[in-house]
Amino acid sequence: MITKNLPHGYTNQTQLTPRGILKRYVGPGAMSRWHTEMSLLPIISEYLPVPTLLKQKNTGEIITKRIYGLHALDMVDNGLSSEVLKALGKLLKLIQNIPAQKLQGLIPGSGSVLVHGDYGPQNLLLNAKTSEPVAIVDWEWAHLGDIVEDIASVEWTIRMFHTKEVSNIQLFYEAYGDIPPWEMRHKAMMVICQRQLEFARLLGKRKIIQQSQNRLHITSRFLSL
Questions:
Q1: Were both Cys, which of 4, 5, 187, 212 would link to 16 (CB 3.0–4.6 Å)?
Q2: Global confidence as pTM
Q3: What's the sign of the alpha-carbon dihedral 60, 64, 66, 70?
Q4: Are 157 and 122 in contact, with CB atoms under 8 Å apart?
Q5: Whether residue 109 has pLDDT greater than 80
Q6: Distance, CA of 173 to CA of 154 (rounded, Å)
Q7: Cβ 37 vs Cβ 118: under 8 Å
Q8: Distinct helix (H) and strand (E) counts, the chain
Q9: Could you tell me the CATH superfamily of domain 70-220?
Q10: Lowest mean pLDDT among 2-6, 29-33, 60-64, 95-99
Q11: How far is residue 69 from each of residues 21, 45, 148, 159, 178, measured CA to CA in Å?
Q12: Torsions phi, psi of 185, nearest 5?
C-alpha cells in the first residue's frame, strides 16, 4: 500500500493512503487520545465540518475520508490571516453551542462547553476558492471545559508563532462576538504552556522540554493587546 506522510502533523503519524487519511496515535496517552477522537467525531459531525470517520479495525488508529482544502497555516503564511481568523471566530461559536450533555461521560472534563484543546489555524482546512471552512481536525485533546480555553488558544498561537499577524487578532474576536478579560485569557494561555511542558516531560526529550519552557517564559511576559 502506497502512503504519503502529510505536513503539519506534530504529535502523531498521519498519512494519505488509498483508503483515506490514516492517523496513528503515538506518545504519552495515545490510547486515551485515540478514544476521545474516535468517540467524538461521529457526534459532532452533525454540527460542524469535521473529518468523516470510516470503518477501522485497529486499536490506536483511525481512518477518515480524504479532505480537500487549504491548510489554514499556509494561508496565514501567505498573508491571508484575516480570512482564517474570521473563520475561527465563527466556528468557535458553533463548537461552544454543541450541547455539552451529549458528551458527558464520553470525553474527559466536566465543564460547560466542548473545548477542542488545540484550536487555531494549525487544525483548520479551508476551501481554496471561497475560504469557507472545510474541516476542523485533530480532536484528540477535546474535553468539556471553559469557554476561554479555545479563545486563548487562538490568540496565543498567533502571538507566539505569527507575530506579523497580531494586529488581525481583533478580527477573530469580532467574528466570535465577544472578548473575555485579559486576565482570564492570559491565565488560560499559561495553562496551555504548562500542559505542553508536562507533555514534553513525559516524552523525555530535552530539546522539546527546553522549547516548552521558553514558550512558558515568553507567554508570562505577554501584555494585553
A1: 4
A2: 0.94
A3: negative
A4: yes
A5: yes
A6: 10
A7: no
A8: 7, 9
A9: Aminoglycoside phosphotransferase (APH), C-terminal lobe (3.90.1200.10)
A10: 2-6
A11: 14, 17, 28, 25, 28
A12: -65, -45
Pure H helices in the chain = 30-44, 72-77, 81-96, 148-161, 169-176, 182-203, 206-220
3-state percent helix, strand, coil for the chain, nearest multiple of 5: 50, 15, 35
- Domain ranges across the chain: 4-64, 70-220
What SS3 class is residue 14?
Answer: strand
- Among 56-70, 151-165, 169-183, 185-199, which is the least confidently predicted range? 56-70
58 backbone φψ class: left, alpha, beta (φ>0; ψ -120 to 50)? beta
The C-alpha cell 458553533 sits at 94
